Known about the structure:
By secondary structure, the protein is of the alpha/beta class. The chain has eleven helices and 17 strands. The strands form four sheets. It has a nine-stranded mixed sheet, with helices on both faces. Strands 12-13-11-14 form a four-stranded parallel sheet, sandwiched between helices. Strand 6, helix 1 and strand 7 form a beta-alpha-beta unit. The radius of gyration is 24 Å and the shape is elongated. The protein binds adenosine-5'-triphosphate, 6-O-phosphono-beta-D-fructofuranose and magnesium ion (MG). Adenosine-5'-triphosphate (ATP) binds next to helix 3. Its EC number is 2.7.1.11. Belongs to the phosphofructokinase type A (PFKA) family. PPi-dependent PFK group II subfamily. Atypical ATP-dependent clade 'X' sub-subfamily. Its main location: cytoplasm.
Amino acid sequence: MEELDFTVETLGECKIESPIPLKNNMDEAHASFVNDNERVLYDIIYHEGSKNNRDDYVEGNLMEKAGARRHIYFQPNHVHAGIITCGGLCPGLNDVIRAIVRSLWYEYGVRRITGIRYGYQGLDPNNNLPFKELNPTNVDDIHTKGGTILGSSRGGPSIETRVDTIERMNLNMLFVIGGDGTQHGALYIADEIKRRGLKISVVGVPKTIDNDISFIQKSFGVETAVAEAVNAVYSAHTEAKGAIDGIGLVKVMGRESGFIAAHTALASNDANFVLVPEVKFELDGPNGLLEALDKRLERSFHAVILVAEGAGQDLLEASNAKDESGNKKLADIGVFLAQKIVEHRKKKGLPANLKYIDPSYMIRAAAATPNDSLYCARLGTNAVHAAMAGKTKVLISMWNYHLVHVPIGTAISKRKVVDPKGPIWKDVLSTTRMPLSMTNN
Ligand SMILES: Nc1ncnc2c1ncn2[C@@H]1O[C@H](COP(=O)(O)OP(=O)(O)OP(=O)(O)O)[C@@H](O)[C@H]1O
Ligand SMILES: O=P(O)(O)OC[C@H]1O[C@](O)(CO)[C@@H](O)[C@@H]1O
Ligand SMILES: [Mg+2]
């Protein structure tokens, strides 16, 4: 078995008794403390034939269980906590902020909580973005809204400048809510903090509708994104069925990982073609999408195509443009496909009734579904427990239905993608009955 590094870094020994049992309605029996050496198995599959399956459970493949510790590192009344949200929007950001604030305030009695505005840009003094004091009153109903009350951004100042600001603010814990880029930034910030000999805990909460961060069962926001995308596919299907040889085309986000498209296809059962970045496809020729689409229309008189934004980039004109964070700007596969399909159908003298729906930002800006809200609440609360216990360079993750600590370095070591030979893609092929010959993986 591949050996992974799940060793979590801590700032020092935990010598302070946790105040949780003293707070509010909580007694010792309900505090539900987690022993610091409790572990969750990374791999719960029994591998038949393995000489001794227990040999696989080497330390590296055990994940540290998240949760409240009986003894903590920080004295609550000395804590000044910072919260930052970075990268693209994602349903549930406000839920996580709310959970962090309430857990700090009510479970630990922390009274100094500061929101940093507009992501890492808020750590650049040149931007003059005022900090926002946070408390249970001003986060009270934010979970009912999409977006982030703190604002977000791409790009930002140098790591040194970010840490200078953190140092000037006198923070001793920073909660970093963001995607892969954000967590890269968090790791470098934590490295710089360590280099300066500061005791500041950096805890990440992985945010992404793309679901592309590794060692996380499912990122928060993904479920809401899929629910919204299903609505778009429903509309595309309805439009397609209402026209002669109607074609519904829906584009969803997914830069390098096509989970939104794959999960939406499985949830809606209305998509006939699903195009994701992980699986190359041809447009023209006997094995191309256009030919397969014609055949489908001949047979069923309507078709729905669901495409992830990162799919088919090899068919488009490459550009070297990058966004402020250094992410490659993608060409618009949705508009491209819409044009090519209409051109192709017209050239053949066939009906070209195509309706194109791009719900990308509607999906991302939606408020979290109840299940996502519940997940965010648990991630936020457990991020607080981790920080109070002096854990650093760590993300809160759900793995095998347990909340665990994953070192940020491990989580960002590889991107999670839809495996073209894995069970999710197999089910997509099976539900869509898309011709295998169309994809040349
Ligand atoms: N390699 C890196 N080193 C340091 N900081 C980075 C790095 N990549 C990104 N960041 C920082 O992280 C922030 C967010 O990154 P990015 O725009 O890539 O979004 P993300 O966190 O990946 O989220 P998403 O892709 O889901 O929108 C940026 O403001 C940038 O400052
Ligand atoms: O338009 P923006 O803000 O650059 O964001 C687009 C990107 O953000 C994401 O939604 C991730 O947050 C990607 O799926 C997408 O490529
Ligand atoms: Mg990213």
